[in-house]
Amino acid sequence: GKTLYGLRDGRQQDAREIPKDRGDIPIPVALGIWALSTAGFVVLVAFLVPEFPWWITAAFGFIWTPIYSYIGARMIGLTGSPQGVSFPYLREGSFYLSGYQGAGVWFAPIPIFQWGFEAAAFKQLELTKTKFGSMVKLAAVTIVIMFICSFVFWSFIWKLGPIPSSAYPFVQKFWPFHATMQAFWAKSTLPDAAGNALVSQIIRWDYIGTGFLGSAAVLAGLALFKAPLTLFYGFVGGIGYWPHFVILNFAGALLGRYYFQRRFGEDRWRAYTPILLAGYSCGMGLVGMTSISVALISKAVSSIVF
Q: Full-prediction pTM beyond 0.85?
């Protein structure tokens, strides 16, 4: 907390000046790596599903992903979360309206990515004085470790009990739901399928147009009265949250704004909040991993009644 507070009080560095020894990858090299990897996805999808229009895959990878990531990065800077920038059923609608006949594209690796989080990750690396190249090395080592350990844990979990079964209540309850929804969309592009007619009834352009015009009117009204833009982003982002998350999040925001900020001061409280969030996330992760470990051990041990 003191470190971040000192950084806020220190001299602000020009945003256009690149810090020394940060390990930046030259922009042409970074763009080349991204273009090459995206082109690989396009070629792979064209090879796996040759009937699907390749230009849609290319548009998702080369046009939509950069725009989507830019919007997500700005949302993180404004609100701390990229929520609210997702376009519902963009992937499904593109497949359905493309005229493609078949189900293979629903299982293809379409390059639709959200890289907005990486902007925040790079800022964290800069604050901790960690080189960007170290993140690449960490990812390479992590992939090798996860590739080996995943087979160990998968085989262990699979041998504990049938999947789905009562031993895994979440899977038993939600797997049928997810499988039904995935089959519903996959059937929508099959020729003479019942799902096709159902999807045509679900897509209501009047509802879509009403939502678009309503959002535009709200945004224009806020701009007219010079209200903060984050109010609109917060409203849109809150629509997609579950009630139990929204209520607690709102209560925490009120507590921080009207109690802790007055008690510690605005600058000091804003310097402490990232540390609190990091500690909470770390503690939640430890509790989750401990609970999973206890559950796996308890299921692996057979109880013998004497």
A: no
